[in-house]
# Entry
Amino acid sequence: MATEHLSPALRAPASSRPYAKARPGYGKRTASGQRTPRADDFALMPERERYIAGYVDRLPDGAAMDIKSLAKHLPLYGQMAVSSALKALGVAGHLRRVRCLVGEGGQVRWVSRTYWSRTARDNEWWDAFLATEDSRSAPEATPAPPSAEPGPQALATAPPLAEATPLPTATAPAAAAASEAHPAHTAPPAPEQRTQVAAPTAPSPAYLALAQVGRKDTRLALSAADCRALEPLAAAWFTRGVDADYLIQAVASGLPPQVGSPVGFVRRRLTDKLPPHVPAAPALPVPGAPRRRVMLECTKCGTPGRPEALPDGLCRPCRLPGDDAAPEELPARPSEQDVRTFAAGLRDLLRSP
# Structure
């Protein structure tokens, strides 16, 4: 008699089975760039994880992904088994739990979502994906309305167009011949073409500060060429966070009775008294500034954090070995009576000869 060979892998419930739907904004979210479903998508995983992964993969977006809802629709496993399986799927790179800030203005709230990828991804891919989701969820700026055609008032206030240079015409040779025939009626020479002169650039703050040094004390009077030569040294002061008053006071204070070379003296002081670089203090959050709207969450305990602090979607305590031990396996705390009995026994030992 022929024997029927059954597959050892348990089949996940069909997609037509009723599923728990999460509240609007919560639940499952499918990651982008996945391959088409295949029969061996989770073949390398253990039986329990393969069964739960097949069920989660068939859930539509917006389905409930909390442990209680999944355990209610998976009769073969309880909540502890589902929790351990989700942790294993997160370590394998199939899912990440995040908190997303949704809403605008004063109507904002944090929602929990689970991003699912049929294709296993590494930590670098998930970090880049969550950064992209963070930029997408940021409030977009309202685009400016398209400018309409200029009306009569706009045309009236528009700056006048530059005068066009008259092009040579075909009557130029005839006019030249007529001027030779009648020198008394020679036309005045045409005006020279106007050349466009570039507007002078505004002096830099470093140049202006050096120009003010000589006005504070005439012993340090610098020429325009001296200011241009010392401008790079003075600009280095401004990169350290000082202003023009600080530079002028530091250079022009405590002068000797005679200064033989003002440019050499100022160059030496700009070099020797260069202020130290002070690191900038962390900027306080500005009201109304965009903030992080997607935050990674530990798959096991739900602790939020940055992606680099949660490798494989797990916080540090959940990554430690033996974190799945049952609470009853831990040693019980001694009672007060036990402590007193132990102390009395120690006293008796001390009294004995």
Remarks:
- Residues 205-272 form one domain.
- The radius of gyration is 40 Å.
